[in-house]
Predict the structure.
Amino acid sequence: MDYIKSNEELKNMIEKNSMVIVYFGSEMCGVCAALKPKIEEMLEKYPKIKSVQVDVDISPEMAAANNIFTIPGILFFIDNKEAIREARFISVPDIESKISRYYHMYFEQ
């Protein structure tokens, strides 16, 4: 996952890609450190999804602008619209099920 540091970068990323997952976390967050590799591993199955991450300690304004009040947080956008929002207690199998459903509907029609 690439780091982004501004809302403008995020907006451009979402506009230019059909599917984008945004991972909000922090280097100081133990849960974030444990979850991030699992999310990255899951995303290897979905090569058409662009993934980016935001460090909320470095870019707190991005968390605020996206209504992220707790970390870890995940936003998933399809065609510039938010489709999934998860935070704090994130189940990787649950989020993968949701993403897989959207992915297959979108790319395998």
In short: Residues 92-107 form the longest helix (16 residues). The first strand starts at residue 2 and ends at 3. Strands lie at 2-3, 19-25, 50-55, 73-78, 81-87. The mean pLDDT is 95.
